[in-house]
């Protein structure tokens, strides 16, 4: 632990009880899914759109058995393989969208908050309007357009998720910049002749990105849900391009009344687990980094014992 | 209340109302830019292959798509001012009719879901806040996280697979065909129409259809309330007046009920208004899961048909509704909480 930088160890060493458990469990769950995503070709027994092996077709809606531990779905695909490949799709989309959000939102918020003026006002208005709109509806509209233009690819869906989350990054960074730029250390930097670019990069950047990790993790959880929702409505990634849990649940719904539970239960559980994991990480980080919620671990205070301190009165009474 | 603070309430309401105009303008501009300037020809996207090129050109002209963009933009803004939200391309209906015919189903679903969320969320949040970090708190917080983490269609799937048939509850639509046939549409809200008809089989049929979709959507929103009430109770319990009340020897339960609870609920009122956005988004998925004949399902249908006219009209109405609701929430807040006015 001592080798790690303080920024990484701080969430663990400065929390206790529930917050720490949330963080640890969340990180473990998220890590499992990231491993599934990275090593999908080796972990999944079959391809995500593979319906036969050695020319023998899988059974349609087959019960979970030794060959297909989670059964097969109505398209003859192996459910377990689609869960593993689905993790890759989800992680890819979410990673890209959060990356785009940070790359667009943070510099925009920094520049807009630092310089102010009418571009700042217009940006605030536009971002507020985007933020006020129901995010899922916004995602539907953007994916409708972007899928038309770019096809049902990972990039198109990642971009439509970026459109709904970027206002949050902009707002957080812009508002912290507005208050931080008045601070004495910025004034001092300006007095010694630092240019605007240097002030933003060297002085403000580190201070205004503090809340981005929490925001990023919580948005990642939300992005998984939005991605699955789009897939469920048939607006997201095309099923032949990649495995997607939301799309699989849509297919499963028709058979729900007929006693076929495995085609829907496993993709659903995968979504719940990954979103829970990411939420736990976000909440855990929030409880550590947000001073209004933080509960520091109280170390037992060791008082010098009354007898040994050489206090004459204490010795008197001890006798 | 002093003279200056009572004078500031009308001023606050006026200022806040003035802000509605630029907000609506910005939203409409975004809707226009996104849906109209986007590449591709909306008319042939919606009707391509179904009508001959001459008729296509005629439709394009009638809808003003051959005009320059700036005048299309002007036409769009001025027609919204006249409360004309356009017509759909595929079935050639005024968008307002679509809203009238399908809005009622969405409204009854969201109101019922909201009710379930309040009844479930506020008491659970209160219990969690009072037992911080102890067993009930941990269980309730996990429940809150799960309601958020489980997608609507997964909860819907579970209810359809495991709950619907043992309880004999329907999983599709908002009423049986016989009820839709017998109940006369007065308000276009089936639940109210059923009550107006006084037919007890119709009422129970409509209520039975409502239970599972409303529970699904309500669970999602209840998680938000749990979280919010819990955090607010925690913060209120740390405030000076609660400490003062405890110092006077009032027992903890009474302090929570009489002193902390009401103050903790003030921010909840704000968030109730914000949940409208979550409810609208959630309604789209709930309606698709339960084949509920509401606006969300209609919107998805139009999107799959590439009907830009319908999508633009429905999204425009949503945008206006959202701005107006946020205005109402802010005014309600200012009435409840004097600090907002400054």
Describe this structure in words.
The complex is a heterodimer of chains A (319) and B (342). Chain A has a two-stranded antiparallel ribbon. With 319 residues, chain A is an all-alpha fold. With 342 residues, chain B is mainly alpha-helical. Chain B is 78% helix and 0% strand. Chain B has 14 helices and no strands. The radius of gyration of chain B is 24 Å and the shape is globular. Chains A and B meet through helix 5, helix 6, helix 10, helix 11 and helix 12 of A and helix 1, helix 6, helix 7, helix 12 and helix 13 of B.
Give the SSE map:
The complex is a heterodimer of chains A (319) and B (342).
Chain A: H1 6-13, H2 17-38, H3 40-43, E1 52-53, E2 56-57, H4 79-115, H5 117-132, H6 135-150, H7 154-180, H8 184-191, H9 196-208, H10 212-232, H11 245-253, H12 262-289, H13 312-318
Antiparallel strand pairs in A: 1-2
Helix pairs in contact in A: 2-4, 2-12, 4-7, 4-10, 4-12, 5-7, 6-7, 7-9, 7-10, 8-9, 10-11, 10-12, 11-12
Chain B: H1 3-36, H2 42-47, H3 53-62, H4 69-81, H5 95-130, H6 135-149, H7 152-167, H8 177-182, H9 190-197, H10 200-237, H11 240-247, H12 252-290, H13 295-304, H14 308-336
Helix pairs in contact in B: 1-4, 1-14, 5-6, 5-10, 5-12, 6-10, 7-10, 7-12, 9-10, 10-12, 11-12, 12-13, 12-14, 13-14
């Amino acid at each position: 632990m001592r080798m790690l930088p303080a920024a990484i160890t701080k969430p663990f060493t400065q929390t206790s009880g529930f917050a720490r458990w949330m963080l640890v469990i969340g990180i473990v769950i998220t890590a499992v899914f990231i491993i599934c995503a990275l090593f999908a070709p080796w972990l999944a027994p079959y391809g995500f759109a593979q319906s036969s092996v050695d020319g023998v077709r899988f059974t349609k809606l087959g019960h979970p058995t030794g060959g297909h531990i989670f059964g097969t779905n109505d398209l003859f695909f192996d459910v377990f393989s689609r869960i593993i490949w689905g993790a890759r799709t989800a992680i890819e989309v979410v990673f890209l969208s959060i990356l785009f959000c940070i790359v667009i939102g943070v510099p925009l918020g920094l520049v807009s908050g630092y310089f102010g003026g009418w571009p700042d006002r217009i940006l605030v208005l536009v971002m507020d309007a985007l933020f006020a709109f129901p995010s899922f509806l916004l995602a539907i509209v953007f994916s409708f357009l972007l899928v038309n233009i770019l096809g049902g690819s990972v990039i198109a869906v990642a971009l439509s998720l970026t459109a709904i989350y970027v206002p949050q990054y902009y707002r957080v960074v812009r508002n912290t910049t507005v208050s931080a730029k008045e601070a004495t250390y910025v004034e001092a930097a300006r007095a010694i002749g630092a240019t605007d670019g240097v002030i933003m990069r060297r002085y403000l950047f580190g201070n205004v990105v503090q809340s981005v990790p929490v925001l990023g993790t919580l948005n990642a959880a939300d992005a998984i849900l939005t991605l699955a929702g789009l897939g469920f409505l048939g607006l997201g990634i095309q099923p032949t391009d990649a495995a997607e849990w939301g799309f699989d649940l849509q297919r499963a719904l028709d058979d729900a009344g007929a006693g076929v539970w495995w085609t829907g239960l496993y993709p659903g559980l995968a979504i719940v687990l990954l979103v829970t994991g990411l939420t736990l990480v976000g909440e855990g980080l929030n409880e550590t980094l947000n001073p209004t919620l933080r509960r520091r671990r109280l170390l037992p205070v060791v008082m010098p014992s009354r007898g040994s301190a050489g206090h004459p009165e204490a010795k008197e009474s001890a006798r | 209340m002093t003279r200056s603070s009572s004078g500031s309430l009308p001023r606050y309401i006026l200022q806040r109302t003035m802000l509605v105009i630029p907000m609506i303008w910005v939203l409409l501009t975004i809707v226009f830019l996104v849906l109209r300037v986007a590449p591709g020809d909306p008319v042939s996207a919606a009707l391509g292959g179904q009508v001959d090129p001459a008729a296509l050109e005629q439709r394009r002209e009638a809808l003003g798509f051959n005009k320059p963009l700036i005048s299309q933009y002007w036409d769009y803004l001025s027609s919204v001012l006249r409360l004309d939200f356009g017509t759909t391309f595929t079935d050639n209906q005024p968008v307002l009719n679509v809203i009238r015919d399908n809005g009622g189903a969405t409204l009854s679903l969201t109101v019922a879901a909201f009710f379930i969320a309040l009844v479930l969320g506020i008491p659970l949040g209160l219990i969690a806040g009072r037992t911080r970090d102890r067993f009930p708190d941990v269980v309730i917080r996990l429940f809150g996280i799960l309601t958020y983490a489980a997608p609507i269609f997964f909860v819907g799937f579970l209810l359809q697979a495991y709950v619907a048939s043992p309880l004999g509850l329907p999983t599709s639509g908002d009423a049986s065909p016989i009820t839709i046939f017998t109940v006369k549409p007065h308000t276009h809200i089936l639940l109210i129409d059923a009550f107006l008809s006084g037919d007890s089989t119709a009422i129970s049929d409509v209520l039975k259809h409502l239970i599972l979709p409303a529970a699904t959507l309500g669970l999602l929103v209840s998680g938000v309330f749990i979280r919010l009430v819990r955090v607010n109770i925690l913060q209120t319990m740390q405030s000076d007046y609660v400490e003062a009340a405890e110092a006077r020897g009032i027992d903890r339960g009474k302090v929570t009920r009489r002193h902390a609870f009401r103050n903790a609920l003030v921010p909840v009122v704000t968030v109730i208004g914000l949940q409208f956005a979550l409810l609208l988004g959630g309604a789209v998925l709930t309606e698709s899961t339960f084949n509920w004949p509401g606006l969300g399902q209609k919107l998805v249908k139009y999107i799959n048909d590439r009907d830009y006219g319908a999508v633009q009209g429905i999204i425009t109405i949503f945008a206006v509704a959202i701005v107006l609701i946020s205005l109402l929430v802010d005014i309600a807040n200012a009435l409840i909480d004097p600090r907002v006015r400054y």
